[in-house]
Specification:
4 iron, 4 sulfur cluster binding, metal ion binding, seven-stranded mixed β-sheet, about 700 residues, about 20% strand, metal-binding, binds iron/sulfur cluster, 25 helices, six-stranded mixed β-sheet, about 30% helix, iron-sulfur, Rossmann fold, Phosphorylase Kinase, domain 1, Dimethylsulfoxide Reductase, domain 2, iron, 4 domains
Length: about 700
């Protein structure tokens, strides 16, 4: 940080929102704070409207500045009133003790988020297992990256969103983006695609909507939501038929191709066209473009991954990339575009139900022994893996389920699938505590609300979409009396009798995280705050201080025991819910440029509200005509779970049989009141956010 005139101070840090983690410097001291973008390797001076607006919220009038509790303890119909930290924490600790005494340790649960710093995510996992000794912990990344992570772990033995630096995109001759819309979700990343295009690269977008990214592509494939796996298998079928498979690479660097070769035989191009709606000619153009490119990249994201077959769908695209010899080749490969700011680090350090720090498995005796030694406990005292996010939420308040829940940095009342069901489960809890800096829809339901520090007021590390570990630096002090989540966990652990094991200082926690991760897949042992400062971030794995870090993975071998990548045969399965007479269309959900995730922050930003004030459902002009809907009319979307209202955006950018709704809003415009959680992915436990059956009716004029 540098001191300026009038006591102001300028600090280099990063945007609080998405996984690009754009560099910016924040000047604070004489509030309001201001920012300028930095020439950091991910954004190279660019920021999107979300990043530009981020400092607005630091002084927002709705900012929570005091702990809140129910006026009548235990009565959630009574108002939330301000109280002291001592009272709020006493109530929470009392609830934890009562619940564990009556119902057992696992009846207290923790729910985390992909926006927590690495240190906070690490400490939350440790808090659950050491201070609470509960198996009940998971986080909202289960709804985001888990399918891609499951596929990458299975195929490569390691999950790092992009196993290559972002800058490789600029060098690729073709990038196939499957269910990804960076032009809206992370606009500064488009400079890498644009640089490629200026060199003559032709990118291909696979998306049921003609998004801003698709409009700038050389080819746009518009499959029916939920059919991306069939498309990938079909492309591999064509590659085999046309002799485009890199047989030398397959023989030298992979296992299991014969099974896949046999499996994709059934994916004839015309059958794939019938399943997906993608013309045979476009299937062929895609395969030939990928196979003929010197450097080619396949990127999947939530559009392909948030399905009940999300892991297999990501695997199908990995199979295609492997067959064409891409992973590990310079400027080539498969990757997934991480969503949340610390979506990557959030899944590496132990806040996932089945994981310990260093991306270790809670089922592995050696991993348990290593982490237990760092934590100074007996490995037998470590709990077993608990339930995944939706399964934990769906069992709240039941026999054998969680009865007291602590939520950090997550707004499940808006972001969880079948959100109204989740809200009713939250109401069944004996006690709910939420840490947040605004009164989110989830915090509104709580017994205790704990006001937390905001991004610019806290320090720690984040791991971006490339696996680059960077520093979030404290640009200003939090308002008086506000704790950041590390301090909160240290204070709670102290009251639970484990305080000597929990520091509230980020660098102290990071030093412990380094030791806990040492020797694991996500090895941070060689990374220090000083190195991050000196090197614009360090890529993991980095096993010792002399190691340069690993921007590009798999160049020599994959992280599997035999060093080879694994093909896995995968088959198309129909979406759990298909259109019928009652619900005749397909609903898919996603993001818009000027909002972020559950909208707790961005819906409160005045400048972003000017850009995207209203939740809009997109539908095709043919469908609008059939249903008598005009531009801007209020429409009601209904599914078997619930109803929600949106303004109609009539656009020929969407398939006539598909309706799109953004998921940033709650209340009467909650897209997740509509989504289907009945069938989870068997590997990742991912719900089917991206496809369900919907009915559309016009309610009124604009
Ligand atoms: Fe922030 Fe992502 Fe926008 Fe960059 S692209 S400014 S990290 S929201």
């Amino acid at each position: 940080a540098a001191r300026g005139r009038g006591g102001s101070r300028t600090t280099k840090t990063h945007c609080p929102y998405c996984s690009l983690q754009c560099g910016m410097s924040v000047t604070a001291g004489d509030r309001p704070a201001t920012l300028v973008p930095l020439d950091f390797p991910t954004n190279r001076g660019g920021l999107c409207s979300k990043g530009w607006s981020s400092v607005e919220l630091l002084d927002h009038p709705e900012r929570l500045l005091h702990p809140l509790v129910r006026a009548v303890p235990g009565d959630r119909t009574s108002p939330l009133v301000e109280t002291t930290w001592d009272d709020a924490l006493s109530r929470l600790v009392g609830a934890i003790r009562r619940t564990q005494r009556t119902h057992g340790r696992d009846a207290v649960g923790c729910f985390g988020g992909g926006s927590l710093t690495n240190e906070q995510a690490y400490q939350f996992g440790k808090f659950a297992r050491v201070a609470l000794r509960t198996s009940a912990i998971d986080y909202n990344g289960r709804f985001c990256m888990s399918s891609a992570a499951g596929a990458a772990n299975r195929a490569f033995g390691l999950d790092r969103g992009m196993p290559f630096p972002l800058a490789d995109i600029a060098e690729a001759d073709v990038v196939v983006l499957v269910g990804s819309n960076p032009a809206d979700t992370m606009p500064p990343a488009m400079q890498y695609f644009d640089a490629g295009r200026e060199r003559g690269a032709g990118h291909i977008v696979v998306d049921p909507r003609r998004t801003a990214t698709a409009r700038n592509s050389a080819l746009h494939l518009q499959p029916l939501p939920g059919t991306d796996l069939a498309l990938a298998n079909g492309l591999l079928h064509i590659a085999l038929a046309e002799g485009l498979v890199d047989e030398e690479y397959v023989a030298a660097r992979t296992t299991g191709f014969d099974e896949v070769r046999a499996g994709v035989a059934a994916y004839w191009p015309d059958r794939v066209e019938r399943l997906t709606g993608v013309p045979v000619a476009d299937q062929r153009r895609t395969v030939f473009a990928l196979a003929r490119a010197e450097r080619a990249i396949v990127l999947t994201a939530r559009g392909a991954e948030q399905h009940r077959s999300g892991t297999d769908t990501a695997q199908a695209w990995i199979n295609l990339a492997l067959a064409l010899g891409l992973p590990g080749r310079p400027g080539s490969g498969w990757g997934t575009v991480t969503g949340q700011g610390n979506g990557q680090g959030g899944r590496e350090h132990g806040q996932k139900a089945d994981q310990l720090p260093g991306y270790r498995s809670l089922r592995d005796p050696a991993a348990r022994a290593h982490v237990a030694a760092v934590w100074g406990i007996d490995p037998d005292d470590l709990p077993v893996p608990g339930k995944s996010a939706f399964e934990m939420l769906d069992a709240l308040g039941t026999d054998g389920g969680v009865r007291t829940l602590l939520v950090l940095a997550s707004n499940v009342a808006v972001s969880a699938p079948d959100a109204r069901r989740v809200v009713s489960r939250l109401a069944d809890l004996d006690f709910l505590a939420v840490s947040d800096f605004f009164l989110s829809e989830t915090a509104e339901l709580a017994d205790v609300v704990l006001p937390s520090a905001m991004w610019a007021e806290e320090a720690g590390t984040m791991t971006n979409l490339e696996g680059r570990v960077i520093r979030r630096r404290r640009a200003l002090d939090p308002p008086d009396g506000i704790l950041d989540d590390l301090q909160l966990l240290a204070e709670l652990a102290g009251r639970l009798g484990a305080g000597d094991r929990f520091s509230g200082d980020p660098e102290t926690v990071f030093e412990e995280l380094r030791r806990a991760s040492a020797g694991g897949v996500a090895d941070y042992a060689g990374i220090s705050y000083d190195r991050i400062d000196a090197e614009d971030g360090v890529f993991w794995p980095c096993p010792d201080p002399a190691h340069p870090g690993t921007p590009r993975l798999f160049t020599e071998r994959f992280a599997t025991p035999d060093g080879r990548a694994r093909f896995v045969r995968v088959e198309h399965v129909d979406a759990h819910e298909r259109p019928d007479a009652e619900y005749p269309f397909v609903l898919t959900t996603g993001r818009v440029l000027a909002q972020y995730q559950s909208g707790t922050q961005t819906r409160r930003s005045r400048s972003l509200q000017l850009i995207a004030p209203t939740p809009r459902a997109e539908l095709h002009p043919d469908l609008a005509r059939e249903l008598g809907i005009g531009q801007g009319d209020v429409v009601e979307l209904a599914t078997r779970r619930g109803r929600a209202r949106f303004a109609a955006q009539v656009t020929d950018a969407i398939r006539p049989d598909v309706v799109f709704a953004p998921f940033h809003w709650g209340g009467g415009s909650s897209a997740n009141a509509l989504t289907d959680a009945a069938a989870l992915d068997p590997v990742s436990r991912m719900p089917a956010f991206k496809v369900c059956a919907v009915a559309v009716t016009r309610v009124s004029g604009p």
